[in-house]
Amino acid sequence: MTAKAKERIQGALKNIEKNFQQLLNNEDVKKVLTDMKKLKSKRTKQIDKMLNDSWDDIKQGYTNEARGLEKLFAKEKKKVNKVFQEQLTELKKIKKAVEDHIASARGQKVRKVAKAKGTRKTAAPRKKTAAKRTRSTVKASPVVINQPAN
User: Fold this and answer.
1) Distance from C-alpha of 103 to C-alpha of 150, rounded to nearest angstrom
2) What is the pLDDT of residues 72-84, one digit of tens each?
3) What is the pTM of this model?
4) Max CA separation in the chain (angstroms)
5) Alpha-carbon distance 18 to 124, whole Å?
6) Which residue ranges of the chain lie beneath pLDDT 50?
7) Taking the mean position of all CA atoms in its chain, how far away is CA 139?
């Protein structure tokens, strides 16, 4: 591989590693883990309580807990998804760098990917209108004058 291709790949890999380190050191993740521990201890208390509760109370408790967990993890899910999307773009860059290097090593021309053209509606063909009649084209019609009958 050429030095330029190696540099591109190494830069992308460093960027990926940095993003994962950022996830590990993220205080929000630590906060979520502590919240999970709290929920676990709360759940053990709930199990003890469930033995003495009615079925409807148990059902309501689970729905409330499910809502709480959804709210708690919604933000974290978005953050992690964003990080993985960034990783995907970095991996695509690596793939392109490798493909370019292989193509140049084989002596092939590097194909440039054409951007997709937007779908634009074409105007409908205009209808041809009949030419307006002028005085010269209008035929003279016989004029009938009312005459008294004999």
Assistant:
1) 107
2) 888 888 888 999 9
3) 0.34
4) 123
5) 54
6) none
7) 68
